[in-house]
Structures are given as structure tokens and as C-alpha cells.
Amino acid sequence: MTPRPDSLTVEVVDLIGTVVARYHEEYEHAAAEHSLTGTQARVLSLLAVGPQPMRKIANCLKCEPSNVTGIVDRLESRGLVERRPDPDDRRVKLAAATAEGARTAEALRTSLHFAREPLGKLTIAERTLLKELLQRMLGGTAE
């Protein structure tokens, strides 16, 4: 017989679900303001950090590399992304944000008020604890 989750666990899971749903809703809205889909915006945000091979992007999105090719094609046609040879392996192509792509990713990031405003109500100690707890939940270690 599977043990029944306690009510606190159920409440925490429900709250996490609500936070995730609200974040995704706002993220999709912010992406649309830049004429992007949520997935295109996510790829652009990943590439704004640095060039990535298509396979790594696919792993982050948990999708097939062929899907990433189409997404990168559309972003490239808008001048937000470019393909470059990997300096370590010329057989591999890296996708990289252009200067315009990096500006768009930054504008997208700064327009996400839902994620930023509630966190601003927490003290630095509370945000640090929340970060550490989330990292632990995901199996990582606190930095």
C-alpha cells in the first residue's frame, strides 16, 4: 500500500504548481510581445548566455534536435540567432544569439514581473534559503 502524502506536502505541491503555471502564462505573454513563441523565447534566452550546440539545446528543451533546427531557423530568419562552427569541432554547428537576439532576450527577461516582484518581497536570507531548497529538490547542491 502506497503511503498517503500528508496535507502539507499536498499544499506545497499545489503552490508550486500554481507558481509554475503563472510563470509560464506570463512567459508566454512576454514572448508574444516580442513576436516569439514561448519555446523560441526559451531558446533565445539559452543562447544569450552563450553559443550552444543544437543537441545541447534539444536536451535542455527535452525535445528532438530536428525540432531545435526549425526553431533556430525561424530565429535566424529574424536576425536573432546565427549559426557558427564550433572552434573545438568544425563538424559541429553552434547556435548563437546575435546582438539583436541578446537585446531581445534581455528585454524579455526584464519584462517578467511575476517572477521578480514576489521574490522582491522576500529578504535576501529568504531568497537564499528558497534557492537552496529548490536546488535540493532538483538533486543539486547549493552554490
From TrEMBL:
InterPro entries: HTH_MarR-typ (IPR000835), MarR/SlyA-like (IPR039422), Tscrpt_reg_MarR-type_CS (IPR023187), WH-like_DNA-bd_sf (IPR036388), WH_DNA-bd_sf (IPR036390). Residues 9-139 form the HTH marR-type domain. Keywords: DNA-binding, Transcription, Transcription regulation. This is MarR family transcriptional regulator.
